[in-house]
Amino acid sequence: VGFGAGSDPDSMEALKTIASEYNSSHTDIQMEFTFSTWEEHASKFSTLLAGDLTPDLAFPIGIQGIAEFFDEWIDIAPFIKEDKYDTSDFYGPALELLNYPDKTIGLPVGVYPSIVFYNEDLFDKAGLSYPPSAYGDSNWTYDQLVELAKTLTLDENGNAANSAGFDAAKINQWGWGGWCGPFRTIPGKFGGNPLGMDAEYKTAEMNTGGYLEGAQFLHDSIWVTHVAPTSEELSSSFGGADNPFEGGATAMWECFSWMAYAYPTFNNFNWNVAPIPAGPGGDIVSPTNADTFAISAHSKNPRQAWEVAKWLIEPEMLSRVCGILGCMPSRKSLAENWVKDMSEEYSNVDFQLFVDSIQYMDASPNNEEWVPNYQKVWDATENTADILRTDGAADVQETMDTLDAEVQGYLDEYWASK
């Protein structure tokens, strides 16, 4: 069992304990975890593939990990059908994450929906009401978020971004930290397809619709309204950190629930979470990451791998596994206890909102889902997002036209090889 279980010593020991428990109660199948960091997972797995040494079961593995090696996983639908395996306890949208046109690659282990984190102290200091505490407020939109963020964005003299004396070159507090995820998490909020191409994966669609609107919003929030930091400001004011929220100088920030690892660093201010705002067309999309499992197409023991996977995602064991991995359990029956456990440690935070966000996840297509020439398309999209964050003079339409042409080339290259 292996792929991306990480390198944290405590987590590794906890997973080894689980393997020992399985092995002591089963004589026909034995389990052993192998470990890999995210940084080395792709190169390590490629090496194992070349030597026909891949683990039977990739557990845990994210949607992106599946996409990177899409042809290396088997269809588990026959196992599900043969065993009459009950999937009704899993969140419906989470099940959709693994259902591809030609195969079902796995079942969900844990989910990481997005949420808006906000700094209560900065809202209090500005005399502003907090964002909504539940989904259903039609006034909670990204336009409204920007208006709040203007008041919460301050220069070194305390002038807000919506005041005449504001100096955009000397900001020391930001109202909006932006989105922590890849660019593909943005277009769905503006009515677009996060994959940026047609349903046949043959025509790029990255210079129009939701892709273009999302790019314009990203660019404008940094360079026009100045409510979000530039790449240079992220580097100078936050030390290049991927998390602009922890220092207490950012009022709102949208990120995945896997940010739980950083909660201890939010200790110098009061914070809470708010629902995902609606986009201009009313779309509410909570971009979601997920842990799942996949069985290697090179496995000599696929049925045994399936049996181990089933054991690991039974409710009691899944609760333990998610406690180790830091994920929200993918089973509905475990939600209440997850909220209770998290609330005991952070009593001020509304963790039920994370559960409520699952119904708005970008399940199909997902922001990490497979596309042809996956890594080339991914890198091109992220490089374009970097341009939008670093170049205030960039013409957004021209920038997205360039991206669209580049991605079209990668799609043509892929299909020409088939």
What is the topological layout?
Layout: H1 9-25, H2 38-50, E1 57-62, H3 63-68, H4 77-83, H5 92-96, E2 108-119, H6 120-126, H7 142-152, E3 154-155, E4 171-173, H8 209-223, H9 231-238, E5 252-256, E6 271-274, E7 288-295, H10 302-312, H11 315-325, E8 328-329, H12 335-345, H13 352-357, H14 374-390, H15 396-416
Antiparallel strand pairs: 1-7, 2-5, 2-6, 2-7, 2-8, 3-4
Written description of the protein model:
- The protein has 15 helices and 8 strands.
- The strands form 2 sheets. Strands 1, 2, 5, 6, 7 and 8 form a 6-stranded antiparallel beta sheet that branches. It has a two-stranded antiparallel ribbon with strand order 3-4.
- It has 2 domains: about 10-110 and about 290-360, D-Maltodextrin-Binding Protein, domain 2; about 115-285 and about 370-415, Periplasmic binding protein-like II (D-Maltodextrin-Binding Protein, domain 2), CATH 3.40.190.
- The two termini are about 30 Å apart.
- By secondary structure, the chain is of the alpha+beta class.
Query: Which ranges are low-confidence, i.e. pLDDT below 50, for 5 or more consecutive residues?
Result: none
Run of helices and strands: HHEHHHEHHEEHHEEEHHEHHHH
CATH-wise, what's the superfamily of the largest domain?
Periplasmic binding protein-like II
Radius of gyration: 22 Å
Count of folded domains: 2
- Principal-axis shape equals globular
**Number of separate helices:** 15
CATH class of the largest domain: Alpha Beta
**Main beta sheet strand tally, sense and closure:** 6 strands, antiparallel
- How much helix, percentage-wise, in residues? 25-40%
Mean pLDDT: 94
Structural class: alpha+beta
Distance between the termini: 32 Å
The proportion of residues in beta strands is: 5-15%
Number of strands: 8
In the CATH scheme, what's the topology name of the largest domain?
A: D-Maltodextrin-Binding Protein, domain 2
CATH architecture grouping of the largest domain: 3-Layer(aba) Sandwich
